Amino acid sequence: MSNKKISIKQQVQNNLIAIISIVIAITSLAYNTWRNEQTEFNRNVRTSSFQILMSLAELQLLVDSAFYNAVENNADPIKGWRHVLYVQDLAQTVSPKVKTDADNLHQVWTEHWQLMDEQENSNKQINLAIESNRQLVLSTLQGLQ
Q1: How far apart are CA 109 and CA 105, in angstroms?
Q2: Which of 58, 75, 78, 94 fits 65 for a cystine, CB–CB 3.0-4.6 Å?
């Protein structure tokens, strides 16, 4: 047996395919992990966004019914709280901007819900807050990767 010392350069050359394979495997694993996390994040944002949009639509219907169908008004403004709070809760899972806008919707609702069926300005303020939230959620959905 000969006691040959193999240089590092020679070892790298002898094992180049194994080294490249390990680098590719680690890179692929890292990318796959990142992609899975991104996909899960997008799925959660989409689900929350669709629920927010549905709740905003129901709130819009309640607000419009309260103001425009005053004669046959079956809309219970108290039910609006359910939608406003639900939107506010779900907004936390979408984005900080949507959360801020949902907080604004809550504030506007707090100030105007009791007069939304009588005063056009109250109705208008609520409608503007709903539309703002809706547009921001749609914009967030369009920006998903």
Answers
A1: 6
A2: 75
Helix locations, 15-119, DSSP H: 16-68, 77-91, 96-112
Sign of CA dihedral 79, 99, 108, 106: positive
Q: How far apart are CA 62 and CA 127, in angstroms?
A: 11
CB atoms within 10 A of CB 18: 9
Which residue is it, tokens 């409608």? Answer: 127
Amino acid at 91: A
Q: Can you tell me which residue has the tokens 């193999």?
A: 6
- What are 36's two structure tokens? 């899975």
**How do residues 17-63 score in pLDDT, each as one tens digit?**
999 999 999 999 999 999 999 999 999 999 999 999 999 999 999 98
**Domain boundaries 8-142, CATH class:** mainly alpha
Structure tokens at 80: 């609006």
Q: Read off the amino acid at residue 29.
A: L
